[in-house]
Amino acid sequence: MGESLYIIIAGLVGLGVGALLVGLFMKGNNKKIEEDAKEKAKIILREAEMNAESVKKDRILEAKEKYLRLKSEFEEEVNKKKNIIITNENKLKQKEQSLNKELEQIKRKEAELDSKKENLNAQLHAVQVKKDELDRVTNQRISDLEKIANLTRDEAKDQLIEMLKDEANTKASSHIKDILDQAKLSATKQAKKIVLDTIQRTATEHAIENCVSVFNIESDDIKGKIIGREGRNIRALEAATGVEIVVDDTPEAIIISGFDPVRREIARLSLHRLVQDGRIHPARIEEVVAKTEKNIEEEIVEIGERTCIELGIHGLHPELIRMVGRMRFRSSYGQNLLQHSKEVARLCATMAAEMGLNAKMAKRAGLLHDIGKVYPEEAELPHAILGMELAKKYKEHPEVCNAIGAHHDEIEMTSMISPIVQASDAISGSRPGARREIMDSYIKRLKDLEDLALSFDGVNKCFAMQAGRELRVLVDADNVNDQTAGQLSFDISQKIEKEMQYPGQIKITVIREMRSVSYAK
């Protein structure tokens, strides 16, 4: 036990000594680490101080460079402004010197004017003195004359005025008569010269419009296709176009008869397309006629534009251009309206140029003078007044409007262009062979015949056929039944008998067609 205790004590003592030795070793290590840390801290501080010093110097150098640069720019700007100020001061000094010189000159002129003014005042005073002396002498002489002649001044003046007035009237009357005679002679010669020059310089055709068109075909076999089974094709074509198709023994030709040139042209073009296509039946005929009508409207606009380009007329309203194109399919007393209007336009331009007036405006008025004849709606106005209203509506020049309205003396002429248009219209229309009065009255009678039938309710279309001896009336099947169709035919015939004058008799045919259309989709 004592030995064990001794061993334990010895062990404890060994542990204490080891612990002490370990503590002493650790203490020595800590001191060394601490010293190393302090040394590193000092080194870091020295490096930081050196870096800070270097950065500080760099910042100071950059600041000095920036300061010097800004200072240089500032001084340069100041020098520029200083130079500008010096330049402006020099200019101001020069202007001041110039103004001083001008002021001195003005003062010298004022002094000269004052001197001249004093001289003029002196001269005026001398003249006034002489005038007073002259008035005194004149009054003395007048009083002496009044005593000798036993007349006062006013009485003598009145007698002298009366004598001079009679003498002046006599000479003026003689002079005015001579001037008027000379003016009439010169005006007549000049007017004849202008009209003759204008007619000679204008070449135009004199062909008369008719009511028949000829459609040429390659062989007579096509006639059977155009007629169709039991004539159904030709009836469908006549009903769709409103013209009469005459298929006779004339070789390789079909006659298209109708008073309206537009309808004849539609029928001719439709026939041409049908023959080329080869498919000729009622449904195809209606389709082709509808397309042709649309194409004719486009052609009308194209004709109007081409006419304006040909005559050098610009700025016309599109509606007026369309009406100019419609003139191609209208006639005036058998004379083609477009050719007549173009001829009048050229005559007007030539006359206006000869007289020193505005040739372009005169040409414009000449082209549009008959524009009222192609107005699509019926109007109870003369065509000249209607054309003038249309020109005003589409913003034409007032002189052009007046020339259109006054070319048949419906209104008063207010410009020199108006009599030129009137004279040109007379020149174009009164040439031998240019017009045919019967044609216009004939076309008007057929147009009135169609308008009379269209005035009845339920009538869709109406076509005058056989030179006005037959009237075909197409009615709306929904509004007119089979019973009322006969009554409508009778009512139209009675109204024609009461209101119209016509040769022979007129056949009224009312056509009512019922169609039911469905689509399979």
TrEMBL record:
Q: Which Pfam families match?
A: HD, KH_1, RNase_Y_N
List the GO molecular function terms: hydrolase activity; RNA binding; RNA endonuclease activity
- HD domain: from which residue to which, for each copy? 337-430
Q: Does the keyword Ribosomal protein apply?
A: no
Transmembrane portions of the chain = 6-26
Subcellular location(s) of the protein? Cell membrane
> What is the recorded membrane topology of this protein?
Single-pass membrane protein
Which InterPro entries does the annotation name? HD/PDEase_dom, HD_domain, HDIG_dom, KH_dom, KH_dom_type_1, KH_dom_type_1_sf, Ribonuclease_Y, RNase_Y_N
Q: What's a single GO BP term from this record?
A: mRNA catabolic process
For whether the record's keyword set contains Nucleotidyltransferase, the answer is no
Write the record's keywords in alphabetical order, separated by commas: Cell membrane, Coiled coil, Endonuclease, Hydrolase, Membrane, Nuclease, RNA-binding, Transmembrane, Transmembrane helix
Enzyme Commission code(s) on record: 3.1.-.-
Regions annotated as coiled coil: 31-137
Q: Which Gene3D superfamilies match?
A: Hypothetical protein af1432, K Homology domain, type 1
Q: What class of enzyme is it?
A: hydrolase
Give GO cellular component annotations, separated by semicolons.
plasma membrane
Tell me, in a sentence or two, what this protein's role is: Endoribonuclease that initiates mRNA decay.
Q: PANTHER family recorded for this chain?
A: RIBONUCLEASE Y
Q: Which HAMAP family match?
A: RNase_Y
Family statement: Belongs to the RNase Y family.
Q: Would you tell me the protein name for this molecule?
A: Ribonuclease Y
- Report the source organism: Belliella pelovolcani
Q: What is the lineage of its organism?
A: Bacteria, Pseudomonadati, Bacteroidota, Cytophagia, Cytophagales
Gene (name only): rny
